[in-house]
Amino acid sequence: MFQYRHVLVRLRAGDSERDIARSRLMGRQKLAALRALAAAQGWLDPDKALPDEAALVAVFGERRRASTTISTVEPHRELVQQWLLAGVGGKAIHAALCRQHGYTGSYSSVTRMVQALRAALPRETTVRLSFEPGEAAQVDFGAGPILIHPDGHPRRTWAFVMTLAYSRHQYVEFVWDQTVATWLGCHRRAFEWFGAVPARILIDNAKCAITRACAKDPQVQRAYAECAEGYGFKIDACPPHDPQKKGIVEAGVKYVKNNFLPTRTFRDLADLNTQARHWVMTEAGTRTHGTTHAQPLALFALEQAHLQALPAIAPDLGTWHRVTLHRDCHVKFARSLYSAPFTLVGKILWLRATDNAVALFEEYRHVASHLRARQPGQRMTIADHLPPHAQAFFARDRHWCITQAARIGVSCQRLIEHLLGDRIVERLRGVQGLLQLAQQYDPVRLEAACARAIAHDSPHYRTVKTILATGADLRVEPPLLIPAVYSASRFARDAASLFASPQQDLLH
Questions:
Q1: What is the C-alpha separation between 264 and 134, in angstroms, rounded?
Q2: pLDDT tens by residue, 457-491
């Protein structure tokens, strides 16, 4: 309406239609029509006030001629509106109408209908969030380049990005996975990169951080909750399907993917992260940000004083896992085995794993601790966790058997050393059974039975047990009837006479 008001001012000042048309405000034919309408309304009288906007709109407002053509999509208006509200695109709507409802109209007709329906929908509104220095950081993952994994196969990398909401200074690290351990480790290295901790971390609902997504009452991963408690920050999870709440880091991830990755090549993951850190400090940190109109590193110098200090001792970050204690008194984690008390066999336990240790809990009661296995398949066992009979079996090894035999006697020790020295059959169980006979019989009798078995050249467990059972070790053997003293000459002569011939006897 400003154009009409300006023309009225010039007409009231006495300018001709030719002069007004020459200034390109309005054509001469339209000027003539406007002069006639203005004269009828009495607006050309210099003594009267100019009309207001409402009066001008009432007279000169645009009057569109109603279309008399009915759209070919009109019979399907409600269906198109349902699809549009469900997020279906225009081409898909046109294809569905042709395929399912026999529609023969053009795609342009569907487009005009979609545009009209969208114009009638209420407009979405939003507000831009602002943050004070040190108040918050936003975290997200983004797809990285494909590199050769140490196992020799190509694998996708993932970019972990933490952006300070006030200064827009970033921490960027590329990793192989999005596990809980990786998530916690990236947080620790990000805080060390900034040299401080923000008061709040805005995240989405990734499984490594949130186990149950909910706008009002999200359930935080147990290990991530410990991390937040140790470093002193609060976890602020976005509502489900609403990533705009952390739009700063969303834009930061796009900036990494569009500015850093396309123009570079990388040998391996270490080279990728080295180049990323250099890029953050030399290019991303020194650019003039499009929103703040300042360099992120310059704003970070101001923000750093408002961040929380790192804890004096870094928290021991661990991941929690639900495991079952199997019948062999071990749980399985990361392809290694860890023992727990045999009384808990079949129960579900909580396992907390750190870089150096593994701890097992029954609910909140600590039941076992182990050093972290360094090789797949390694078995970490505490003997006290095994049932009594298993403890007894493993405790009675070869060294224990020989030591116990020496306490019983020399014959017992000789017999057991003979059995353990068998080069064909493993006789450890027989030796253990032989030593158990000392509990049923007196050790003195066991020593005598072993001596008797050796004397009869039958050093076996069955022989010793039979001797003790029959009481043969208690019987006194009669002495052998052998002369006490023999003369060498007589023994030699008697022996010679045994082989003498009859002729020689006759000579004597």
A1: 33
A2: 899 999 999 999 998 888 766 554 444 444 444 44
Residue 417 belongs to some domain of the structure? no
Residue 178, number of CB atoms within 10 A of its CB: 15
Count of domains forming the chain:
4
Q: Does some domain include residue 483? A: no
CB 327 within 8 A of CB 340: no
Per-residue pLDDT reduced to its tens digit, 134-166: 999 999 999 999 999 998 999 999 999 999 999
* Domain range enclosing 379: 319-391
What was the pLDDT predicted at 270? 94
3-class secondary structure, 321: strand
CA neighbor of 169 nearest in space, from 246, 250, 252, 225: 252
Q: What is the pLDDT of residue 50?
A: 80
147 and 293 in a common domain = yes
Instruction: Choose the final residue of a domain: 280, 306, 332.
Output: 306
- Whether 156 and 280 share a structural domain: yes
* Shared-domain flag, residues 101 and 146: no
Structure tokens at 389: 């009979």
Determine contact, residues 445/473, Cβ cutoff 8 Å.
yes
